[in-house]
Amino acid sequence: MAACESTDGVTDGDLVRQALAGRAAAYEKLVRRWSARVTAVCHSRVANAAAAEDLAQETLLRSLRGLKTLVEPDRFGSWICGIAVRTCLDWLKSSQRTEVSYAALGEGG
After folding, report:
1. How much is the pTM?
2. Residues 76 and 26: beta-carbon distance below 8 Å
C-alpha cells in the first residue's frame, strides 16, 4: 500500500512524524484515515462482527503504543494492517476466547 495522502497534501509519513513529535491530533488523523480499512481487515479475519470491532480498536491501540517502532513512516498503512492481522490471529489462537460458533456445537448440540 502506498502512503495515503489526503486532500490537504499531508501524507501518512508526515502524520506519523508529527505524532512522534507529540502532536496527538496527527495520530487522530491517521486513525480517521485508516480505521475503516483496519476494521475491514478484522472483519475479513474473524466471523464475528462484534469481535472484529473490538479487534480493530485493539489494533489502533497497539499501533499507538508501537508507533515509535515504525521504521518507514510512509508505510504506515501496510504496518497497521499487519498489526490488525496479527491482532486477529492472537485472538483466534487465544485460549481465553469464550465464544463458540454455532457450527462448532455440532448437530447434537
Report:
1. 0.79
2. no
Over the stretch 34-93, which tens digit does the pLDDT of each residue have?
Answer: 999 999 999 999 989 999 999 999 999 999 999 999 999 999 999 999 999 999 999 998
- Which pairs with CB-CB distance under 8 Å and at least 24 residues apart come from 36-44? 37/77, 37/81, 38/80, 38/81, 38/84, 41/81, 41/84, 41/85, 41/88, 42/84, 42/87, 42/88
All three cell numbers of 102, joined, read: 454455532
